[in-house]
Description:
Layout lengths: L1 H25 L25 H5 L10 E2 L1 H4 L10 E4 L2 E4 L21 H6 L20 H17 L2 E5 H9 L4
Parallel strand pairs: 1-4
Antiparallel strand pairs: 2-3, 3-4
Bound molecules: protoporphyrin IX containing FE.
The site of protoporphyrin IX containing FE has 14 residues, from helix 4.
Amino acid sequence: xxxxxxxxxLLALYAVLYLGFKTFIGFDQPxxxxxxxxxxxxxxxxxxxxxxxxxxxxxxxxLGLPLISxxxxxxYKGSNSKLYMSVKxxxxxxxxxxxxxxxxxxxxxxxxxxxVALSKMDFKDEFFDRSKLHWRKDxxxxxxxxxxxxxxxxxxxxxxxxxxxxxxxxxxxxxxL
Length: 177
Ligand code: HEM
């Protein structure tokens, strides 16, 4: 009998540890995840050798997709609209995921350029304010690496619906905001 109780307790302990690790340390985790600042899930630092200039580059653009202005983007966060968000100049449709809906924990990212907030792993208002901070001008190399990990993450999971007009104008005219 004691043997079964002991075995049961060990199994329960294992389950708790497994779920704990899965949730908070993360096997399936996004970049940065709950472990904070920018560590990749498999601990491989994919951009370890990337230079600052390389990390500043704009993601390659697919042909035929529209440019979406910040103003237009801001409309894509309502309960009756699709949910879009911009990461490093690319606009993704994230409507399929509950976490981006109005009651979801990550709704704050929708309708905006979320690059800086993602790169800093912080939801502070100022990190969504492009007049204060812009991913191309105000991030350190380590933050740009985190941002690039996020680009890879979104690229894999969500359809691209366009590119952020203001960012592309910046890219094409090499002008500052
Ligand atoms: C206590 C802090 C946090 C916890 C416990 C947490 C936990 C999680 C978990 C469990 C997931 C889902 C992982 C999966 O799909 O397997 C997730 C996804 C995500 N987290 Fe966090 N997180 C935290 C903080 C943050 C912060 C500070 C940011 C950015 C500012 C952030 C951005 C995201 C994003 C963008 C996703 C991906 C959502 C998607 O699937 O598209 N998280 N987080």
